[in-house]
Design a protein that fits this description.
By secondary structure, the protein is mainly beta. It is built from 1 helix and 15 strands.
């Protein structure tokens, strides 16, 4: 199982400025949606930007379904999870139950597939384990979306995250992402040959990347 590590270093003077303005350090995971293309729907963030901020996550993806509207409220499981690995399919059965993952795992496919064969609609929540500055969040959502009956959802996970600063009043854990600024930093992992990346925000407010 791959583990990704992102360290965000922020210049000390910039930290004081960001904190005084009430800005959070935010990251969000990217994926390709079968219908809409690249999409990000849920934000992860550090409550207070520090001079060194560490984010770690793994490919231990889980999925759950719910009839509660998760688009405007924190995403929390109120039904059982089902683990799913790349290359597998989950089905919502005619009786509304979420079946177990079908098919052989294929880590090279990067695809997660969900078929809704039973419910008129459901909100789909995909989660992964995330550690933020040594605090573990075992099932933190990174995708929330609505899937109607007889529809198919295909997600291709991308080893990329967006990093930016956002007003604290506009972000909450597990909520949908507000518009991401155009100057948000894009951090890629596998395509850069490393699962460990270092992003630096310097005293002039400029980003740079290392590994």
């Amino acid at each position: 199982m791959s583990k990704f590590n992102l360290v965000v270093n922020i210049d000390l003077e910039r930290v004081a400025d960001l904190q005084s303005k009430g800005l959070n350090l935010c990251i969000a995971k990217s994926f390709e949606h079968s219908a809409t293309g690249t999409k990000i729907t849920v934000v992860w963030y550090a409550k207070e930007p520090l001079t060194q901020n560490t984010f770690e996550w793994e490919n231990d993806t889980k999925l759950f379904i719910t009839l509660h509207d998760h688009r405007d409220i924190p995403s929390e499981a109120n039904t059982r999870y089902q683990p799913i690995q790349y290359g597998q399919t989950l089905r919502i059965k005619a009786n509304g139950e979420l079946g177990t993952a079908e098919g052989d795992p294929n880590p090279h496919s990067r695809e997660l597939v969900l078929r809704n064969e039973g419910l008129d609609w459901t909100d789909v929540v995909v989660t992964s384990s995330l550690t933020i500055d040594s605090t573990n969040h075992p099932d933190l959502p990174f995708y929330v979306g609505r899937l109607f009956k007889n529809n198919l959802l295909v997600m291709i996970m991308l080893d990329e995250v967006k990093v930016w600063f956002q007003d604290k009043d506009e972000v909450n854990p597990g909520r949908l992402v507000p518009p991401i600024p155009d100057d948000a930093l894009s951090v890629q992992f596998v395509s850069e040959g490393s699962l460990n990346r270092i992003a630096t925000y310097d005293k002039d407010g400029k980003w740079s990347l290392g590994s």
